[in-house]
Specification:
Strand content: 15-25%
Radius of gyration: 18 Å
Shape: globular
Largest sheet: 8 strands, parallel
Strand order of the largest sheet: 3-4-5-6-7-8-9-10
Number of strands: 10
CATH superfamily: NADP-dependent oxidoreductase domain
Helix content: 40-55%
CATH architecture: Alpha-Beta Barrel
CATH class: Alpha Beta
Length: 276
Amino acid sequence: MLITKTLNNGVEIPAAGMGFWQINNKDNIKEIISQSYSTGVSLMDTASAYGNEELIGSAIQELEIPRNDLFITTKLWNSNQGYDSTLKAFNHSLKKLKTDYLDLYLIHWPVKNKFVESWKAMEKLYEEGYVKSIGVCNFQKHHLQTLLNVASNKPAINQVEYHPYLVQTDLHNYCIENDIQLEAWSPLGQGELLKDEILKGISEKYQRTAAQVILRWHLQKGIIPIPKTSHKERVVENYQIFDFNINEADLILIDNLNRDLRFGPHPDSFQEFFGS
């Protein structure tokens, strides 16, 4: 049974998804998509910067998966931001993914002096029906405030790094107050959290894996986790998270693991990291 959440524009989005960052092998992508689909995972999250949109589009086509059965997300890269270049980049992504619409299109990072113009282009795509929902990635509260001051359509999603070592409570609360759904990339902290002794102890208590406990923690906080794996057996494991609950005391215990630790760049200094 597909569990969904309702976005601020009424669109239904799966409560968990599959990330495709750093997965660039054609056969592996096809295998992962096939396993994801048979497991009931329909949310596929990629980005133009991942360099695998074309491989994903081809795999979906070869597997003959009905387009309406999937929720496809991709992202606008930094060097393509701006009004006209956003429209052009969107068309390139659409062509590579071999589809005539997207379920969700996101601004990948808040490029200073450009993300507002990019958003205006995304609103045009949304209003013309080329994308069912639009949103942002890696936006902090001040980026969202800037955007909301000028936007005709508020972001449906804010996808950010979020895991037990980076519990962004203020940002999460702001998104809740403004009816913006939070999505988590790197919800397992690039695998580092699987080594945490407290999380291991909690997972033993529930007779689950540490990954399942972490992903369930996201769900119970109202956050959509987008874990990435290149191993098909882990696809099944990562989505066996809808049939148990973590009690309140253990949720707080996991919250208290917060270290404000990022495995990716900070949204206010990412341009130094990427260069553009």
